[in-house]
Amino acid sequence: MKQKSTGGWRSKKKIYRRVHELDRVMELQKKPSLILQLKSIIQSQKQKCLLRDLEKQVGFVHKWNFMAVIEKYPSIFHVGGGSNRKPPFVTLTQKAEKIADEEEVARELMEPILVKNLRKLLMMSVDCRVPLEKIEFIESELGLPQDFKKAFLPKYDDFFTVKDTNGKPYLYLQNWDASLAVTAREERLAREGVLDSAGAQKRVRITKDGNYSGPNAFKICFPAGFRPNTSYLEQLERWQRMEFPSPYLNARRFELADPKARKRVVAVLHELLSLTMEKRMTSAQLDAFHSEYMLPHKLLLCLIKHHGIFYITNKGARSTVLLKEAYDGSNLIDKCPLLLYNDKFVALSGRREINSCNGKSLS
Q: Which residue from 63, 124, 272, 356 has the least number of CB within 10 angstroms?
């Protein structure tokens, strides 16, 4: 687009359109994150009681944020002591303890999901291996327990093994499973009836917003106020129809200059985000897997170009990339057992618990 000025015609500056509902996702998770973190700190103590160790756990500055949470939510945190020469202490209330005991059940329900997602994560990498430190970098996004190296991985030695390569520990995939080489995008299309049982294409219906029910299409969610012209929609339609290799095929087989390979990169990013609990990762976390998934050097430009699929928010402490189709407004549509448990615990604070399927309050 161009605009006229006294000096002639000049290009009009492009503006990245904000989606306030997705920006709000990061704002809404601040208080719950503090509540859940404080709960974990208390439960990690031998006596399930926090005395003077909070500053050692979180640092002097962040200590005051947690102190404010303790004071604001007496329904979750009980403060005792402080008199008769007894030092003050913090524990969970009886009601909070009762719900906290349900975490073990949620963790058990999560295990088969974690095994499947971790196998898929390794299957997408070029050598079916990922440095262990990079798995640790995204362990909370995947939902892995903090002691996953000692308690989780040894239980599934049929699927995973840790080996030193060039002096660095790597997590290796033990065996390839073709039944897992199906992306979340393909699963969605199958549920919607776009693909028949043999994976063949059914009748395609083109819409005016860039979406169509083809087997190679991605779900597009344009921001409010974005009005693409006919030329843009025609180009997007050609891109949506274009066939591309599966993210589970080795990336070394393709030249990145090939348009099909570039579309495959979008599919890889889509699948990576789909494997996380909240369908989001920080920009730094995505960039950390550059070599394992042969991501483009200009990753940010790739994400911005496909702004109908991905959304970048700078709200919060870090730049975060969200998968648009996973959210209805500010609410995550599908939640795993661990997130449902977290919602139930945080609901003790008086915060409304949102049903992931229909957006109705459960409390």
A: 63
State the 10-residue block means of pLDDT for the chain, 363 residues long: 47 66 91 92 84 72 84 91 75 94 96 97 96 96 93 94 94 96 93 63 58 87 84 89 95 90 96 97 95 92 94 88 95 96 93 45 33
Measured distance CA(272)–CA(117) in Å, rounded:
10
The contacts found for 237-245 with CB under 8 angstroms, 24 or more apart, are 237/206, 237/210, 237/212, 239/263, 240/210, 240/211, 240/212, 240/214, 240/216, 241/212, 241/214, 241/216, 241/217, 242/216, 243/216, 244/216
Picking from 281, 22, 311, the residue whose alpha carbon sits closest to that of residue 141 is 281
Q: For 18, what's the count of Cα atoms within 13 Å in the CB-facing half-sphere? A: 8
Q: In which residue are the tokens 């969605």 written?
A: 188
The span from the CA of 350 to the CA of 344, in Å, is 11
